[in-house]
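Action item from last week, closing it out:
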Amino acid sequence: MWGRWSMAVYACLCLAGVLLYAVGQLTSGVAVVGVTSTAAVLLAVRHYQPRRRNSWLALAASLFLTMLGRIVYDALPGQYGQKPLTWIVWLIHLTTLVLFTAGMVGLARHTRERTVTLVLDTAIVVLGAGLLFGILIGVPYAIAPAGGIWAAARIGYVARDVVVIAATIHLVTSARWSVSSALLATGPVGLVVYDVLYRLGRVRGDFLQQSPILLGFLGFFVAIGAAALVPSMRSFDEPDGEQDLDRDPRLRLGLVALLALLPSALLLSSAVDMAPWVRPLVTAVSTVILGLALFRLVDVSYQLRRRVARERIAGRATADLADARDSGGVTAATERAAGDLLAGPVQVTVGGDVPDVQPAAGVVLVGGPTDDGRPAVSISGDPQRINRVRAPLASLAQQASDALERIRLNQSVIKYASESYFRTLVQNATDVIMIVDQSTVIRYASPSSLAIFGAHVAPSLRVTDLLGPKDEADALALCDRAATAAPGEEVRAQHDWTVRAPDGQVSHLSATCRDLREEPSIGAFVLTLRNVTAQRTLERELTRQAYVDPLTGLSRREYFSERLESLGRHVREDGKLGAVFFIDLDDLKLVNDSYGHNVGDEVLRVVGHRLQGFTSGMPDGVESMAARIGGDEFAVLLGGASTEAELAGTADRLVQLLGQPVQVGGQEILCAASLGLATTDDASDGVELLRDADIALYAAKNAGKGQWRRFRRSMHDSLAARMELRTALDRAIRHDELRLAYQPIVGLSDRSVVGYEALVRWRHPRRGALRPAQFIGVAEESGLVLRMGEWVLDNALRFASGWRGNGRRPDPYLAVNVSGRQLVNTGFVDMLRGKLADHGMPAERVVMEITESTLLREGNAVWNDLSRLRRAGIRVAVDDFGTGYSALSHLTDIPLDIVKLDRSFVSSLVTSAKQRQLVRGIVDIADGLDLTVVAEGIETEPESAAVTEAGCRFGQGYLFGRPMPPDAVAADMSPNSRR
């Protein structure tokens, strides 16, 4: 369809250019035809995608420059033949000649053995045509008035015509004939005819600018543009078929002979008035051409001898293969013939031992599993020798494969010659076996046809009477193909046939046919029908399961990825945006834990239904699809959006849609969704696009529930930095690069140290000292907090086991921070008790600190472990109390010993009376519950006095001491210490 429409439009535009010329608009006509033909070549290259793309582009450039040269020349002031600045046009024409020659030579086929022939023929053509044009046109044209550089330019134009003729003849005689090659030859011929007539007119003093000869010039453009638009323009990409040189050398040899005799004819002719100095030149050129012609005859003789030798080898091989009675005889005959062709070592493998592989450069492979099970024949040897005679070797391998097939068929005929054996086999076969003539009239149908067709098949019916209309043509074509195939070769139908029985049952049949008309016992075509209905149903079901999520009905990740890649290419070509929305249900785990997985599955089904409705409601021109990526993750793909604002609005609607309550069994379930958005502006392929959307989702989840974020490059950089930090932290834990510091906890009344809180520190090799807030989050996300926490416990307990009071106070206790992931990890309590025993540390001197937010988030998951810790004698403290805005009533539910007030309370006690009343109330409640209160973050004396006045007996902060290394702690506890 594209070819017909494009050719019609092209013809109309070219006709418009010719009409412009006819009405006197010469320059406009050339411009229209030149631009149209150039555009036609470029569009054809884009549509047909030829492998010799650069050659066609060179021809397109030569068309454009030819047009440009003509327009520039017409635009120059002055009369034709007397215009200034003509050298600009000469340069354009020289560039055009180079591009045209490169394009034509690039489209021609070349082989290593043909090089000598091509060189000889090209030299003869150039010398002969050049001599003719030089005597008839070049010399008279050059000696015309205004010589000098003008004379050189005139000779150059004649030389250009010679090169164009040589390139055209080279292409025509080396390429396969096609409509495209014929048009490619016609265009340059028109150009040369125009140029010759124009130069002859110049010699006579007539410029012929408004004469019909310009049609030859316009034909140059029209023919080459048309040559690109026809589908056969791709025939230049096809391999040469490995044929011998000069498949039909008569045309080439005739041209060579004509041009070789031309100089002699010129010398003998009295019609040509030549200057005395020209005749010696003609004689010299004639001598050279004669010598080249002699070399060409020697080359032809060599080619003929080689061809005759190969034909003798092929004849002997045909006779030997016809006499072969088994695979061994076929192998021996093939090896002899292949060895003679290669004139070197060769290896031949026949039969089932040949693997189903793509043949290498040094292998000729025919048949095999990929060729309908045809007997395989492989011929291997030196790659260079193989490539020189690949065509004869391929023919030899084909004959050997045919011989093997003949032997196999003979054996099969012998095996099944017995009519009784054949009848028994057919009667009990599940496949339907029919004997039909070439018109598909049934002569016999096996009893198994009853199961498929629902009735016995009458012998007078045609096979096409049993099939649907769309299968009739394929049935007739199957018999035709079997009739032209090798004797006994099985030919398969193009597609499955569909049969509907009288009871409405539909069956799908796979059909094969053999031509056994030469077999005396059969004398017809044997049609085998296999019922593949169950197989096709299973294939469809497997395909559906592979691409569709059974729970939600949405596409799976695999199909989504395929569509993502395809859409990415299309939207970039259209100049519009494509986008991926990566969605994660925030609270599905809580729903599963609270209501059970059946309710969670129902939530997923509702979400899938909502996403299907959302994508189906997209406006026209916007391609969309939704998929379940896995678990509680979904993705929506949009293609065809125009602006970022449209995508932002779509993201808002998606978040609102998925945030609506879900009704399950009379219960209203709230399950918010977070969303990450990425567009094709951010990624080069589908993998990057999905990754970017996932990164944006990560940022949205960090911002809170029910949020969406647009991917920014900084997000990727931040994630990469976190991954780098995670790797470095893992290395730091493994190589014991972390350090512990200890901050004192004091009694506010006498400033005596009652305990130390162990704080982890890390000096990064490149970033220096990092605050815990910079790497604790990474440790939590990656799970490294488990190993890091165990390292902290082990080192802190080892160091604290040696603490002793200085005689004026009891031994201080050790406080260690514990994450929620450590507490919910199975075996944490037992691990801690084991380490206490290993280091000889009394349990009552150990306090486990856990943040208030972790206690409320994890709930019962950690409260049971906290109870076990307290039963083991280990005290439990809630850290940062007050930051989570929890009710004070939680203090009665959670198994605690110590409440650590957050610094946000302490820092405002001095200036806020309400805050002092609130802290006093917390302390009173804690005292009533027998809980110890420790005020954190005390940095000034007024703050210390305020918390003391509020009833708090213990404190911690920079006022009493910053985190200290272990040796400073040891000095702090010495008998000489002032504490």
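Closing note: The chain has 34 helices and 25 strands.
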